[in-house]
Structures are given as structure tokens and as C-alpha cells.
Design brief:
By secondary structure, the protein is of the alpha/beta class. Helix 3 packs parallel to helix 5 and helix 7 packs across helix 9. The longest helix has 22 residues.
Length: about 350
């Protein structure tokens, strides 16, 4: 891999959870960041605006309200700016929402990503880093999840669109030699998190003395990954431009590498935690017991996720380390401060 300093960066989804934290990190390092977001109403736009207000006070930041599905506007964006690196975090998120709003995922995650790839192609971008998801592992039960495993059995449309993103990026990397790295994120949480995520929902309900819905009877396991660890991983990855793998064998193809300048990595905490353990850590920090409604596994959900991060450690000397207790404590401190609870 070739290492370089990426000065001018486009971050899509900059007003989103991970996009906000990543943009702040890049700006503090003295980089120039153009942040793109459509500020949609999938969840309360006030939270997105609050994140954005933090970013707009930082030198080196410029915000553009754009929708990736607008091909002409994205084409103009890449004509007007020379980006060293594009970090693509914008997407229609959520597994359960994809059961009732499938077209939102087709437009944002497929059409929008195709427009971005065309922009990278014509804009001579040095490195495209894009967010995938642990959801692509679908009905796989072999643990831990390795990027070398087959991921052809998604159990939600959201997961299918993320797998499609990986395939689309590989095709462009192969055809146009666009260096591209896909990152499969594992259940990211932390301050400024999304209101539709379990930790946010549980915290709000417990403080309001309401019942919480606990799926798979609390036995659900997730490789919860603290947002600062994810950001650290992204920053390390963006600096190293992938090269074609000279050892790639078309007779025995390895799924996480390629004869194109393309790579896939997991970014996860490498230690699955039962949902009930997360709740216990939250109860301890809040000083309140949760009223639990135990429910079966929901359509589109998987019983467990567990990231194999061997390649991440090998190539970037990095492994997420934040414990669930520490991460939950930081989230609760932010939540109480932001909502003045």
C-alpha cells in the first residue's frame, strides 16, 4: 500500500453520526473538508443540525446540502473540486426501516452510490473509502465474521444494498483503477449517536420510566464498536492507498483482496456483547433499572455479530479497544448534557 497525506477530503453524510465525528477529527488535523448531506428526516433533523453547527465553526470546513441521487449536482461537485480522498458515509440506514421503505434504500444506497462512483471516476480521486456494514454477513453463522467468507445470503434489503456497494466499487476499481477500500462497520455507538439505535432508545426509555423492547430475549450478541475507534480506523485506512494484489489467484479468488486496487476490512471491537450486558452497563451508569419486554428475534435481524480484525491489525497496526462500560458511560454523559436530563 502507498501511504500519502490526504489534504482535501469529501465526507458524505457529514451531519450523520459517524460523518460528524470523522469530519471533526479531520479538521482538527488541519485538513480541508467539504461535507455533503441532504439532512433528510429519517430521524430528527434537529440532531443533524446540532452536529452541523459544531462543524461550521471549524476552520477548513465547508458544507454543501446535496442529495447523492441528483446526478447533475454530483457531477458538478466533482468538476468544481479536486478531492484527494472521498469518504462515503451517506446512506439510508436501518435494517427494520428497509422492511417498510425499500425504495429509499434503492435510491440512496444504489443510485446515490453510482453517482458518487462516476464522480470519483471523472474526478481522478486518489482514494475512495466507503462504509459497508456487518449486515452483509447475513445468515452466516461461522464466527468470527471474516472478510474471506462468502456474503451472498443477506437477510435484509439494507444488507443487500451494502453488498451491492462493495460489488459496484470493485467493478469501478477494476475498470478505471480507482483505489477503493470498503469498511464493514460493526454496531457503532457513542455520543451524538442515532436515535433509532438500541443504546439511544434504551437510555431515553429508562429515564422516562418506560418499558424497553429487548429482542431475542436479551440473548442477541453484537460486536459493539465505539465511534472514536471507528474514526481512528477510517483515518488510518484513508492514508494508505490500496494496490493490486500480485498474489491474487483467479482460480482461488480471495474475497477481501483483488487484482484491482481494492480492499475490504472489518472494523469491530472483536468481542461480542450480549444485549442484556449492554442494558446492565446502562442501568449501572443511569442508576435506574430497566423495565424489559422480552421479545423474539425480529425479521431482518441476526442473532450475533463478531468481527475478525486480523487484516486490520496486520495492515494498519490497529484494533478497537474501548470497553462497553467505558463507551456506554461516555454516551450517557453526552445524552444527559445534550438533553439536559
Amino acid at each position: 500500500m502507498a501511504q500519502t497525506f490526504m489534504q482535501n477530503t469529501l465526507v458524505t453524510g457529514c451531519a450523520g453520526f459517524i460523518g460528524f465525528h470523522l469530519s471533526m477529527r479531520l479538521l482538527k488535523e488541519g485538513r480541508q473538508v467539504i461535507g455533503l448531506d441532504n439532512l433528510n428526516e429519517y430521524y430528527d433533523p434537529a440532531l443533524k443540525m446540532a452536529r452541523l453547527s459544531q462543524l461550521t465553526t471549524q476552520p477548513g470546513f465547508r458544507f454543501l446540502k446535496l442529495d447523492l441521487t441528483s446526478g447533475k449536482e454530483i457531477e458538478r461537485l466533482f468538476l468544481d473540486h479536486a478531492f484527494d480522498c472521498v469518504i462515503h458515509l451517506a446512506a439510508q440506514a436501518g435494517v427494520r426501516y428497509s422492511l417498510t421503505h425499500p425504495h429509499a434504500y434503492v435510491q440512496s444506497n444504489l443510485v446515490g452510490f453510482a453517482n458518487l462512483l462516476e464522480g470519483c471516476r471523472h474526478g481522478s480521486v486518489k482514494h475512495l473509502v466507503f462504509a459497508s456494514s456487518s449486515s452483509v454477513y447475513g445468515s452466516n453463522s461461522q464466527m468470527p465474521f471474516s472478510t474471506r467468507q462468502n456474503v451472498d445470503h443477506p437477510v435484509s434489503l439494507y444488507a443487500a444494498t451494502k453488498k451491492a456497494n462493495e460489488l459496484m466499487a470493485h467493478a469501478y476499481s477494476h475498470l478505471y483503477r480507482i483505489p477503493a477500500t470498503g469498511l464493514r462497520f460493526f454496531t457503532v455507538y457513542g455520543p451524538w449517536g442515532r436515535p433509532d439505535m438500541a443504546l439511544f432508545l434504551f437510555t431515553k426509555a429508562i429515564l422516562e420510566n418506560r418499558e424497553i423492547e429487548v429482542f431475542n430475549y436479551g440473548k442477541m450478541q453484537r460486536d459493539f464498536t465505539y465511534v472514536d475507534d471507528v474514526v481512528e480506523g477510517v483515518v488510518r485506512v484513508m492514508e494508505k492507498i490500496p494496490q493490486p494484489d500480485p498474489n491474487w489467484d483467479s482460480g482461488h479468488p480471495d474475497a477481501d483482496t483483488s487484482n484491482a486496487p481494492y480492499r475490504i476490512y472489518n472494523i469491530g471491537n472483536n468481542r461480542p456483547v450480549e444485549l442484556i450486558t449492554l442494558i446492565e452497563a446502562l442501568e449501572a451508569k443511569l442508576g435506574k433499572k430497566a423495565h424489559k419486554l422480552l421479545l423474539p428475534l425480529q425479521p431482518g435481524d441476526v442473532p450475533a455479530t463478531f468481527a475478525d480484525v486480523y487484516d486490520l491489525v496486520r495492515d494498519f497496526d490497529f484494533k478497537p479497544q474501548t470497553s462497553i462500560e467505558e463507551g456506554v458511560a461516555r454516551f450517557v454523559e453526552w445524552y444527559r448534557g445534550y438533553y439536559r436530563v
